């Protein structure tokens, strides 16, 4: 059985350059288009960036800090939880807690 994974070999940069140069030598009609299209695309991107800046300016401050408010809400929820201890326990405290769980599970009733 053969592996279907496409094992791509590394192609040296010099060979890539040579192939591209040969391609444009064979088809010079494509040379001018890439430069023009690149400039047009850059202009469009610049316009989009300007629009985004304007939108950000128009927004009020309450909407801008959405991720911060989510972070605050998450922190508040974590503080409100009474599931576990708020501070990190020492090794002795953890051992004592586990021993008490084991004692409860075994039915000894004796809690250390």
Q: What is the tally of beta strands?
A: 0
Let me know the largest β-sheet.
none
The poorly predicted ranges are: none
Mean pLDDT over all positions: 76
Number of helices: 5
Distance between the termini: 62 Å
- Sketch the topology as an H/E string, one letter per element: HHHHH
Short structural summary:
The protein has five helices and no strands.
Question: How would you characterize this protein structure?
Answer:
By secondary structure, the protein is mainly α. Helix content is 69%, strand content 0%. The chain contains 5 helices and no strands. The mean pLDDT is 76.
List descriptors.
112 residues; mainly alpha; 5 helices; 69% helix; elongated
Write the layout of secondary structure elements.
Blueprint: H1 13-26, H2 31-58, H3 61-64, H4 66-80, H5 91-106
């Amino acid at each position: 059985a053969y592996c279907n994974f496409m094992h791509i070999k590394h192609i040296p940069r010099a060979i890539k350059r040579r192939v591209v140069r040969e391609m444009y030598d064979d088809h010079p009609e494509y040379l001018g288009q890439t430069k023009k299209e690149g400039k047009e695309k850059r202009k469009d991107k610049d316009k989009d960036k300007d629009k985004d800046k304007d939108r950000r300016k128009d927004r009020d401050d309450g909407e801008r800090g959405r991720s911060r408010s989510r972070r605050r809400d998450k922190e508040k929820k974590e503080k409100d939880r009474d599931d576990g201890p708020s501070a990190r326990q020492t090794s002795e405290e953890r051992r004592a807690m586990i021993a008490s769980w084991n004692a409860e599970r075994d039915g000894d009733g004796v809690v250390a």
